[in-house]
Structures are given as structure tokens and as C-alpha cells.
């Protein structure tokens, strides 16, 4: 697979992840505390793909690196919110397993891409 194909697949994958985060947010409790987490995870979970997409359309290598680092950071933050949701028992663990696995994989991918750019 060449870089262009990889980029296209990763854009699709991060978009699908964003959709899964939005769906997860919609089933969280409506308490004041849960609403804070809903807002945070929805922003970070959808930002991963948005920033990666911007990276692929960047005007310079510096801009590309910056957007990749943002995607990496947002993936890490999303993983954190998922851990809180899990620890709070707001969603059954088996319902979180797939999304948590994908969050970890995306974080690993963006960390790897970022490290190669340094």
C-alpha cells in the first residue's frame, strides 16, 4: 500500500471512529457530570480525524507535523475519557471494548507517524 492509499484509509478509519464516539456519547447518562464527559470525548474523538484530514492537506511539512501531533494528543485524550467512562461503569465493558481497542490503535499509529517525522 502506498502513502496515498494509507492516508485515505486512515482518514476513513478516523471518521468511522468519530462516528462511534458520537454514538457512544448519545448513550451516556444525562447527569451534569456525564454531560461534561460527553462534551469532552465528543470533541477529542472527532478531532482526531479532523486534524489528520487537515494534515493531509497541509501546505508545509511543519504544518503536517503539527497536525499529526494534534491528532496524537487528541487520541490520547480520547483514550483517557474512555477509561473514565469505563471506570464509572456508565457503559457495559463489552460495549466499550471495540472502541477502546480502536482508540489505542489510533494512538499507536499517530505516535509512530509522529516519531518518524522527528
Report on the structure:
This is Four helix bundle protein. It comes from Pseudotamlana agarivorans. The longest helix is centred in the middle third of the chain and has 27 residues. By secondary structure, this protein is an all-alpha fold. Helix 1 packs antiparallel against helix 2, helix 1 packs antiparallel against helix 4 and helix 2 runs antiparallel to helix 3. Helices cover 86% and strands 0% of the residues. The protein is elongated. The mean pLDDT is 96. It has one domain: Up-down Bundle (de novo design (two linked rop proteins)), CATH 1.20.1440.60. The protein contains 4 helices and no strands.
| Weakly predicted, low-confidence segments | none
Query: Mind telling me which CATH architecture this is?
Result: Up-down Bundle
Largest sheet, described in full?
none
Number of strands: 0
Order of helices and strands: HHHH
Anisotropy-based shape:
elongated
Beta content comes to: under 5%
Count up the helices. 4
Query: Please, what is the CATH homologous superfamily?
Result: 23S rRNA-intervening sequence
**Regarding CATH, which class?**
Mainly Alpha
**Averaged pLDDT:** 96
Global Rg: 15 Å
Amino acid at each position: 500500500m502506498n502513502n496515498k492509499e494509507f492516508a485515505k484509509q486512515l482518514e476513513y478509519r478516523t471518521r468511522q471512529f468519530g462516528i462511534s464516539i458520537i454514538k457512544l456519547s448519545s448513550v451516556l447518562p444525562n447527569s451534569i457530570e456525564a454531560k461534561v464527559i460527553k462534551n469532552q470525548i465528543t470533541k477529542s474523538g472527532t478531532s482526531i480525524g479532523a486534524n489528520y484530514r487537515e494534515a493531509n492537506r497541509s501546505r508545509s511539512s511543519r504544518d503536517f507535523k503539527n497536525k499529526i501531533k494534534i491528532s496524537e494528543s487528541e487520541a490520547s485524550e480520547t483514550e483517557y475519557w474512555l477509561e473514565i467512562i469505563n471506570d464509572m461503569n456508565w457503559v457495559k465493558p463489552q460495549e466499550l471494548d471495540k472502541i477502546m481497542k480502536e482508540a489505542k490503535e489510533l494512538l499507536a499509529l499517530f505516535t509512530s507517524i509522529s516519531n518518524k517525522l522527528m
